[in-house]
């Protein structure tokens, strides 16, 4: 199962349904090389550091990769084209993986060799100056930052990018900042974009600095600005809808040619100055994308490793059918790491109101059996909560003993159920009607029946699965969901998925958890100015919602990729679940 | 002839009209909202409404169909995107391109695939079939017949990867399949399509071998073929001028229909060899819920099939003077 | 026109044509001999499957060499045809010997114009140009009585009427002035008027060019009209042979009696029911023992000692007249008289 936009559509048929892992801005480990399974990963993940860097950290150039050299051409074997290149229309990791070399943002993540992430100033000299406990943020632009035509990137361009997020054609992008800048849940009603000659009142510019006035306190706003949805767009070169095909580059590469669904060529942007960029190395001279290569075909070609394919990288995680072959024939050319997604099974709080019943379901749940059907270790590492190890503050806190007993404990569950006098409780499980999920259903049915439940399975058309479980009055007790934080703090996990205000039709609070304590804790963590403290608070909320039985933890999802023999330092980008174009190099 | 053309073209137009209307209705019978695709992770009802309006899918269905239909003749204006000149098959909000433009872009791939492979399968299919017919009942006939039975029961999704593995990945005898426009580099066009041609042709050759053989066997037993021999004409003349002439009609019919289908895009072949033709475009527009694109591909594909039928009938009339066009 | 030649123009001796099929050997022709003089017409009669068409296809060498075994001798004007090379035969076919087929619609190519089909025979054998061939085709069409031949020459067979197609077929066969013409039931599918016209045409042409004709039919009426000699075939063998008048007036073989009995006569009473020969033609895969006609023969019991079933009667030809039957001449006269009497009643 993979979660970039288009593949997601294949699986579900609905793009906007967001209970799957749609995007990622998260921190994490890049366990480059091979994984030995889930046993130690949780512990390993704890060692990954996610921190806000200093002004010194924000200075270019990026530290050299040892042994790397400039030059050469890299080939990318993609099954599908990028759905968007217009930064304001980018939400999904699939697009961000390439956008990161085309569009610089005010802030960005500097990835360490160990996979650690440091939030640094990318276009800005630092990670911003916060005032009013997070309501006011000011950023100052670096010197020497240029567009692909050699003109300076100005604060007007930065403001223009923010304002474009309100236009009627950029509906695909993130909406966080728009809401905070207008104080409205329907931001387009307050402001309709920059094309009618009006600017947002909440953004001030002066010289090289830009100040954002937010309607609410957002102490991690500097993380949010690393999203491509908030990248600058040059006022003079804004081609509106057409910008999506050929964005004006501020990064180390620019689009030379792009034929939708067929090919795209990126070449060096000569006006990009590495000395201003603490994040990107940009070794190869050119990236050649070919679209429409099936994931299986791409892996066959990479295993064969001939001709240009020696310089190629698969853009799609290795399909289950090819993993065995790939890891036996060319283990050294595969690279795997945790992705930013967490897979869970929601428990509908509207229907399953008894905590003992929820506990029994969670304890009985056959997580290991399910994982075996979905690809085993390559599917992911057993999860203990909702928060991914790639989110700042993550703690492994195994509330339900899932790491100890991943197979589930129906006996214990039955005990719990018996004690509560709830033996024979009916559990309605809704699932997407496809072959794998049909098998998964059987495993779940066996476990729950053994635990003393009356199991009812409801297969749903996979194209409308999210529409159906997204209804607040849905008639199901348990259903699957996936999530990935939009940036690596707890906010974009817990606010959308556990706050009582998000219990609405097609909202993201699929468990329908309405808990005053949780709401209060989310509010407190959101407003906490000290990010170290805030991270601990999010971890506490993770434990809290896990204990409340809002969901059954499943796995932290994993990715595995492959590259040709003539490429070096091909590593997973912990932000975007794919390879880092800007850190790989072509071997001599 | 003129009457035939006018009548058949009118019929074709009606057919296409019906196909487009049915596609339109079927698409909306499926409860999926194309607007949801363009709506972000946090999708508010207002945003959704805005997208629906921009896409023109907030109008009543008949109105939408009319907009689409009239666009073909007078063009359309999309708010914020610009004019789509006639013949306008619509605008894809997934690819952000005009449907006609995309179809035009994909068509050469599909056409090259269809034409190239048909040259191969016609030469080998008809050649082998004729040989088998001449050597009726002999070893060569039996070998050809059983080989074609085996080949025709094979599937692209099996033969394709095997051929790739053997010819490309392992031995490097042939090039990795890829499409290069003929006008850009004829040599690369040829080498890039060789593997798909051969694989596609392998399977189709079998059909044409069997059809050619059975048609030839049938016409060889016709009285007029015997007459031709009784006149003292040589075996060769009899075989090609008389028997083949008679066998050609049914073959042309089948080939015409096959060609119509092939020009509509060989989905599995295109997928197997990572070629971006009409077949892949159709598959993706279904997956992406892209109605304008799907409609466009469907109409173009249907047009090829309908056109192929007209051409077949005209060619048949040229081959067989008993057929009169009206 | 030299009927007194020492050597007959066409001589078929002990011809055997056997096909191998999946079920076994089919003995389509099993020891057939006959002669044909120049300018004469031999009528071959017999039911379907009696071997008459096979005989004539074999003369032209149009049998399938892979599955057919041909024994005996066929000499045309002194030239042995059995075993002759394909190229030798190609030069003779359509040139020295030609054939008119039964179903003109099926036997003419639907894909080529009449003119072309006639002309290509001419071109093949004379090396004439296209233009010359066309002129010749028009001439031939005129000769066989096609109106406006210069226009109809470009028509396709389907644009011709049945009679016209048969004439065109004749024109095609005669385009190289063949010395031997084999006409395989050329009038069967035509109505009586057209039939008569075609017959007249053939007779006229024979008179003009002195062509030898083998006329195959199952219709004794047609034989009466055109033939000089008659050969009656049954089960791949000749059962009776002789000059037309004799065979028709005093038929000697019970099978011929049967054929004559089953023939409607224009001058006879209309309401007399026809008396078809009971039973069906013999299987050539497993032909009956002895006389092949004996299972259907009403007189088989008149021969002593069951000889009809065990002993194959020998065909003895004396002065071009003969039959293959075990009945004695007396018996024959007696039975024929009875038949004539019953028919008159």
Strand proportion of chain B: under 5%
Q: Tell me the number of helical segments of chain C per DSSP (H or I, 4 or more residues long).
A: 13
Summarize the main sheet of chain B.
Answer: 2 strands, antiparallel
The main β sheet of chain C shows up as: 8 strands, mixed
Structural class of chain C: alpha/beta
Percent helix of chain C: 25-40%
CATH architecture label of the largest domain in chain B: Orthogonal Bundle
Average pLDDT figure of chain B: 87
Order of helices and strands of chain C: EEEHEEHEHHHHHEHEHEEHHHEEH
Outline the structure in words.
The complex is a heterotrimer of chains A (588), B (326) and C (345). Chain A is α+β, with helices and mostly antiparallel strands and 588 residues long. Chain A has helices spanning 5-12, 41-46, 93-99, 155-164, 176-182, 187-190, 221-224, 295-304, 320-329, 355-364, 367-373, 410-419, 435-450, 465-469, 491-498, 516-527, 531-547; strands at 50-52, 73-77, 107-111, 117-121, 129-131, 136-140, 203-206, 209-213, 253-259, 263-268, 286-290, 312-314, 334-347, 380-382, 426-432, 454-460, 478-484, 551-562, 567-568, 572-573, 578-579, 585-586. In chain A, a hairpin with a 5-residue loop joins strand 3 (107-111) and strand 4. In chain A, helix 8 (295-304) packs parallel to helix 9 (320-329). Chain A is globular and about 75 Å long. Chain B is mostly helical. Chain B folds into two domains: 2-84, no CATH class; 106-319, MetI-like (MetI-like fold). Chain B contains 13 helices and four strands. In chain B, helix 5 packs across helix 8. The longest helix of chain B is centred in the middle third of the chain and has 36 residues, at 99-134. Chain B is globular. The mean pLDDT of chain B is 87. Chain C is an alpha/beta fold. Chain C has a single domain (3-96, 178-344), classed as 3-Layer(aba) Sandwich (Rossmann fold). Chain C contains 13 helices and twelve strands. The chains are: A alpha+beta (588), B mainly alpha (326), C alpha/beta (345). Chains in contact: A-B, B-C. The interface between A and B is large, with 55 and 47 residues. Chain C: Its main location: membrane.
